[in-house]
Amino acid sequence: MSTARTENPVILGLPNQNGQLRGSVKPAGAPGGGGGGPQQQLNQMKGTINNGNSQPAPTTNAVIKPGDDWKKNLKLPPKDMRMKTSDVTATKGNEFEDYCLKRELLMGIFEMGWEKPSPIQEESIPIALSGRDILARAKNGTGKSGAYLIPLLERIDLKKDCIQALVIVPTRELALQVSQICIQVSKHMGGVKVMATTGGTNLRDDIMRLDETVHVVIATPGRILDLIKKGVAKVGQVQMIVLDEADKLLSQDFVVMMEEILGFLPKQRQILLYSATFPLSVQNFTMLQLAFQPNSHLQKPYEINLMEELTLKGVTQYYAYVTERQKVHCLNTLFSRLQINQSIIFCNSSQRVELLAKKISQLGYSCFYIHAKMRQEHRNRVFHDFRNGLCRNLVCTDLFTRGIDIQAVNVVINFDFPKLGETYLHRIGRSGRFGHLGLAINLITYDDRFNLKGIEEQLGTEIKPIPGIIDKSLYVAEYHSESGEEVKP
């Protein structure tokens, strides 16, 4: 059996529904486990749930003297030997040292396990360091966060006790994730202060935090705009603003707030826009500037497009034709036959997320769920516990489609098929992260048949009928190793 199972699944933890319907937790080293026991994982989490504001403990590395080989002192993670596709390997052969970055920043980069720049990092880091605006499009999971965080951190001046950079993201979970990456990459830089601020958290805590030194703010639009208007977040010296998942931030949901935020910033500031998708009506990148009417905020942006094809090379896509009543049985069959490390299962509504999570737990499988109507502390706990490998299966809405990077996810299941190609692209991009292999399985009903055909045509991809036996080499790391060759489905 490929997933953790128990005869009596229970709801653990917080008094209200907290999104954690669990079976037994897999022991360390077991298939699909988190690589450590629950207490060890919780210890690793300490300092990361408090809205992303925590800084890592001071490092104890010995002072590096001139002439020393500073790389010998690095605490590198184990080398990832999984095969990678050309989505991340088709580079020019550059090294991070080629960009004349601060040594302390390089130390953080290498200790993250980032060995060489990915294509989007190669294209954008030197341009961003030059101060030019960027409009970049690259596939999910190919290193966009590093592409903007590295030049952002390089340009921070620790002598200035003010906010120097803003990163705006559309979801709270993505804000927490980006802030943790930023904190880890900058941990050797001698005091870069990073803060995450999102809706659903205590405003007073953010006000107190901003009374101290903060260099980088990672935020959702509504909360940072509120803090700016209150005069708490002083952005008069911001030199760089990043819009991550820019297409969402320029949509009708956020564009008015983005206009207001940009209006508070200095006129001489750099704007970096990154996304995997832009609205299909936008045939030319420069048309995106129309979203900022009546004022065009971008100044002759450098355009990067690394998406000749839209879907990730490493994600194999299948569909299973079922009736609505057969979906749960089909999901149960998939659980029993697939070798799942971690899976994300998408539904089209919060209500269906909770109903499906309950049904999965009744079948005996450990299961978390997350959606936008949950209390923020519950969402934070589910996000961090799942990311740390404490549960194998997560049921969610499209809240989890944007930017969320969980390397262990090798299977994505669309329990409900989406209506939009952009939604589909972001969902399946939760597997196959950073050039690795993954599986996307879609449960298709009679009513979905036209959406399936339309999304195939829209994305220029093929979603194949699911075979009786799925080759494990298509999505299980142990069945392949790094060879430089691309796996062909």
From TrEMBL:
The keyword Cytoplasm applies. CDD domains: DEADc_DDX6, SF2_C_DEAD. Residues 66-78 have a biased composition (Basic and acidic residues). PROSITE patterns: DEAD_ATP_HELICASE, HELICASE_ATP_BIND_1, HELICASE_CTER, Q_MOTIF. Its EC number is 3.6.4.13. Keywords: ATP-binding, Cytoplasm, Helicase, Hydrolase, Nucleotide-binding, RNA-binding. Residues 125-296 form the Helicase ATP-binding domain. It comes from the Eukaryota. It is found in: Cytoplasm, P-body. GO terms for biological process: response to heat; stress granule assembly. It holds the Pfam family DEAD. InterPro entries: DEAD/DEAH_box_helicase_dom, Helicase_ATP-bd, Helicase_C-like, P-loop_NTPase, RNA-helicase_DEAD-box_CS, RNA_helicase_DEAD_Q_motif. Residues 1-78 are annotated as: Disordered. It catalyses: ATP + H2O = ADP + phosphate + H(+). SUPFAM superfamilies: P-loop containing nucleoside triphosphate hydrolases (SSF52540). The keyword RNA-binding applies. GO terms for cellular component: P-body. Residues 314-474 form the Helicase C-terminal domain. Residues 94-122 form the DEAD-box RNA helicase Q domain. Residues 42-62 have a biased composition (Polar residues). Its main location: cytoplasm. One of its GO terms (molecular function) is ATP binding. A motif (Q motif) lies at residues 94-122. Belongs to the DEAD box helicase family. DDX6/DHH1 subfamily. PANTHER family: DEAD-BOX ATP-DEPENDENT RNA HELICASE 50. This is RNA helicase. It comes from Astatotilapia calliptera (Eastern happy).
